Amino acid sequence: MHNRLYFNMDNQKRDDIFQKIVLEQNRIGYYNLPNENINHILEFADNFDKKIETIAILGIGGSSLGSKAIYEFLKPTNKLIRKLLFFESTDPLNILSILNNINLDKTHFLVISKSGETIETISIFKYIFSQKPDSKNYTFITAKGSNLDKFAKDLGSKLFYLPDNVGGRFSVLSVVGLVPLALSGVNIKSLLVGANKINIAFFNKKRIYSQLIDKAIFYASNHERYRINCIFAYLESLKYFTEWFVQLWGESLGKKQRHSACNVGLTPIGLIGPKDQHSFLQLIMEGKRDKSVTFIKIKDFKSNLKVPNIKLSNLEALDIVNNIPFSKLINMQCNSVKEALLALKEIPIDEIVISKVDAKSIGELIYYYELLTSLIGELLDINTYNQDGVEAGKTILKGKLMKY
Amino acid sequence: MHNRLYFNMDNQKRDDIFQKIVLEQNRIGYYNLPNENINHILEFADNFDKKIETIAILGIGGSSLGSKAIYEFLKPTNKLIRKLLFFESTDPLNILSILNNINLDKTHFLVISKSGETIETISIFKYIFSQKPDSKNYTFITAKGSNLDKFAKDLGSKLFYLPDNVGGRFSVLSVVGLVPLALSGVNIKSLLVGANKINIAFFNKKRIYSQLIDKAIFYASNHERYRINCIFAYLESLKYFTEWFVQLWGESLGKKQRHSACNVGLTPIGLIGPKDQHSFLQLIMEGKRDKSVTFIKIKDFKSNLKVPNIKLSNLEALDIVNNIPFSKLINMQCNSVKEALLALKEIPIDEIVISKVDAKSIGELIYYYELLTSLIGELLDINTYNQDGVEAGKTILKGKLMKY
User: Fold this and answer.
1) Is A2 in the active site?
2) B72 flagged as catalytic
3) For the whole model, what pTM was predicted?
4) How confident is the model at residue B306 (pLDDT cuts 50, 70, 90)?
5) Structural domains in chain B?
């Protein structure tokens, strides 16, 4: 993975912020995840019932977005052994439509909730449990000591615990992401190898270190001006990665400042090229200059698919695409948009190139964005790891439910 | 469909802007679409080859987002007769992964491009045509006189023409959306009835008129302050509607002003509840106060699915959800978040309630947003209907392709 920045930096703050992140390492759990022992997960997956074809995840937000991002990224090209499905909504039409498409006898359910009391997850679990009340159909992932932990023990189902101090949106490289991914056949070792590559490089001040830290400083110092940060990824299957990014960025960086109590926040936008060249791009080109853009490209698609050498009457002007590999075409499209934006000289651009569509590459990308988020959070003087803002709605809902 | 606004209005500009839209009606084609004669489309669909099971759309941006939005909205609950699939990317992994999942012998291809020279669409068409070079497998939708029109005539395939002065992102209620939707079994008559209901109400200054116009005035006058407009829809299958909205809003309203030449723009965000309560909501609650939120709710899900009356040991605190219909729960969640945001008194909120998940309701919603976009564009003093900003990238790409 390479990251090239097309904007200038003030490098003085580098050491200051680096030291803060080094200190945070002891307090915040996700920094250690690339080095965790995962043998128990690998063993669990190896010995898992071969007749199970589908793993259905009951989880929402941090409990589903990460595994979905990685699974969907790898699905088109990697031979996976089980399908992952996600129950993420209380929408009854959605619940029934997923249930109608699975064979309950060949499905295992992963119930994932850190607090153990997520209202959506437990409501859906109650419904599915009423249809299939058999403890061996369920595996639970929760914090040790939660009420869901106690329930799962009573039930006698398999249980995994989240490591300490790992928040939901930073949990994809813990059991929360690794258990479903291992069951689906993703190479979770490579995933962690990728993450650890970025981890080691950053903490040893090598390679990606300067881009990460300079980008964080630029984003944080310009947060009032460039308040919208777009990822423009030129690969359809990165769609769910952008949804994971939206949660990570929005929920981590939209906060009251620690000392000033000002409301600050950077707004994440996920775009997919070339599709969104025909949608959001116009707004970036001619709209308010309040957006930054990060292009993400795949270096090697490992695909020979070409536009065939066919001439179509009256469409001769388009013969220029003949014989071109689609992988080359899509990256040319990305470069063309990048050059058009650079020419405006008013939009901060950077480019991330990942080597190929494999577990290691997505591991790198995930960890890169986690570090970047932590750096910006610290520079914005906010608590990156809480989400107090969403409590008010939950309290109101509880009141309504009591009354009902 | 109802729309309730929770912010105060300056009503003086109403008549001024209304007159401008009335004038625009003669010039801009989409206003007439709800009243177009669609008999030729209905006839085409009625007589269509019964053994075709899949309609694959080759189109991008305005050529795909509208039909996808409506199809995906209706799919979970309406009995549709054919599957719609979308080739929207030059990503080779995506092209192959869609092709691997269809039976070419039971698939008909709709090639949709207004200009007739969309590089993505023609490249993909060349590839598919090389696999299946039979004119009767293709139907073309384009502007009369385009090079694609001439090609299709030479080929002898079925052709439909876009009406004059209908831009891609306003074309969903023309043949661009209606042909694929009719083939999939959507009731396109009801769709237009819904759209026309809003059309008539607006131009007769009835019902929705005042909300539409007041909302437009509010958004336009506050475009510097509330520069990000979120739709928060509490129905999973409205996901693709929000993508259609993002194109409509972003590409229409991100422009240089006609007279001042300033870059203005409103940034659209599509959110789905309750999922995004666990993601983007924190940023709305505690981040910068630069966002407006429109909640969209379904009045009648026509579903009896309930949380069963099950007590789970140690999870007794969550017995409050027992016996509640999921349709009630999801709308309670929406109301709770709405109340939490209203309590902040700094975020402009409105709420749209649509009656049910049917063609008529989505027709209303589509036309509501088209009118709203036109109103705001006029108030911002921009050309809502062009997209000059995307040309620069296209020109650079052509240069690169020539060189290759």
Assistant:
1) no
2) no
3) 0.97
4) very high
5) 2-24+190-388 (3.40.50.10490), 29-186 (3.40.50.10490)
